[in-house]
Amino acid sequence: MTAVNKVAIAGSGVAGLASAIQLAKAGVAVDVFELKPALSTRGSGISLQGNALRVFDALGAWDDIRAAGYPFEGLNLRAPGPDAPIVAELPDVKTGGPDYPAAMGMPRVELATILLEHARAAGARVHFDSKVTSIDARADDGVEVFVNGDSAGVYDLLIGADGLNSGVRDLIGIDTKPERNGMGIWRTFVSRPADVVRSELYYGGPVYIAGYTPTGEDSMYAFLVEKAEDRIGISDEEATRIMLDESRAYGGPWNDIRADLEAGAHANYTWFTKHVVPAPWNRGRVVIIGDAAHSCPPTIAQGAAQGLEDAFVLTELLTTRDHVDESLWDEFHARRLPRAQAVVEASSQLAQWQIDGNREADAGGLIFGIAQKMAQPA
Ligand SMILES: Cc1cc2nc3c(=O)[nH]c(=O)nc-3n(C[C@H](O)[C@H](O)[C@H](O)COP(=O)(O)OP(=O)(O)OC[C@H]3O[C@@H](n4cnc5c(N)ncnc54)[C@H](O)[C@@H]3O)c2cc1C
């Protein structure tokens, strides 16, 4: 018995596809509706901590993910300047336990492709060019879902895994929205110099944080975190020029990154946000998870991990209980909200210390404390 037989999911990001895999594996009929015409083929990389890797294993996708990424342990801190000296080598907490690496970098495109393949193999139907546009809640036991304006049918549950600007969140009347935290990030996807074998961060210099993470034998992503600027409408050439200029204070592997930028690597820009929707995340038979429910500056690289944990806990409850009732929602919120909130608060605090130029703050202690918390299963 499962608590649901037929589920609609808005959004094919990590939270939506992880939910689809778990539900479809348990025999639930799943329709994933994604407004984009296809998976994005362009994108940067992502850093996945052990607690995210543990969820991939539960999905049955770990072997494919491990093969497509670059596992590593530890974090190096370097100083600005032409030689980019390593000033600290920090150990990592294995937040997924001893069976998984502390962290892994991988190209976002490959992560999305693997999860899509697993969702389809499990039996979920994934529809692109399909925007969830409205809903009609049925008296307590279902929800009619409208896609591109037409009814797609009545479902036992709609999962709104539709990201930061969630339309499902609006449709169920939740008005908490992501707020900018005052930082923006330049990212580029480049080749990996042989001496980059783990994430490295540079504090000091013209931007708040410069850094990079290996994503494969031949690839890594690099980033510069700056005071948020209005970069809307900027040309590709101008984006590359700014990333080149702002990175000139950093030597070492940054010389190779600049060579790739000069050879045409694309630079993209995004603002950081933060928010946590207070409980409950559901209204009747509609629930939001992932970035729809919470977002944070990626200062501890836990955003996607938290969306994966939302999906894992929600689908565990839906597939092991007989009914969708208040006790299911109570357990879901008790297991997910404090944990997601702790990540958002710690990530935002780390970002704020950077903005304030606070060099005395115990950043290491905060990062260690949150990692210890994440090491407990969700
Ligand atoms: C700069 C930056 C760096 C980051 N780095 C990391 C990192 O290293 N590690 C980490 O763990 N996290 C990181 N994160 C966070 C991570 O990227 C997100 O938390 C995660 O991708 C969110 O996944 P999601 O499935 O909730 O939403 P999304 O990935 O945003 O997916 C939502 C999907 O829903 C679709 N959609 C929207 N509206 C509708 C609709 N009405 N109908 C149908 N479909 C719809 C969208 O097209 C989209 O495909 C970073 C975030 C940022 C901004």
How would you explain this protein's 3D organization?
This protein has a domain at 6-70 and 108-178 and 274-375: FAD/NAD(P)-binding domain (3-Layer(bba) Sandwich), CATH 3.50.50.60. A hairpin with a 7-residue loop joins strand 5 and strand 6. The chain has helices at 14-25, 50-59, 62-68, 108-122, 167-171, 236-247, 254-262, 303-320, 326-356, 363-375; strands at residues 6-10, 29-33, 45-49, 70-72, 75-78, 86-90, 103-107, 125-127, 132-138, 142-147, 150-155, 157-160, 179-191, 199-203, 209-214, 219-227, 267-276, 282-283, 286-288, 294-295. Helix 8 (303-320) runs antiparallel to helix 9 (326-356). 35% of the residues lie in helices and 29% in strands. It has 378 residues and is of the alpha+beta class. It binds flavin-adenine dinucleotide.
What is the topology?
Elements: E1 6-10, H1 14-25, E2 29-33, E3 45-49, H2 50-59, H3 62-68, E4 70-72, E5 75-78, E6 86-90, E7 103-107, H4 108-122, E8 125-127, E9 132-138, E10 142-147, E11 150-155, E12 157-160, H5 167-171, E13 179-191, E14 199-203, E15 209-214, E16 219-227, H6 236-247, H7 254-262, E17 267-276, E18 282-283, E19 286-288, E20 294-295, H8 303-320, H9 326-356, H10 363-375
Parallel strand pairs: 1-2, 1-12, 2-8, 5-14, 12-19
Antiparallel strand pairs: 3-7, 4-7, 5-6, 9-10, 10-11, 13-16, 13-17, 14-15, 15-16, 17-20, 18-19
Helix pairs in contact: 1-4, 1-8, 2-8, 6-7, 8-9, 9-10
Flavin-adenine dinucleotide is lined by residues 10-16, 33-36, 46-48, 131-132, 161-163, 167, 185, 270, 290-291, 298, 301-305, 307.
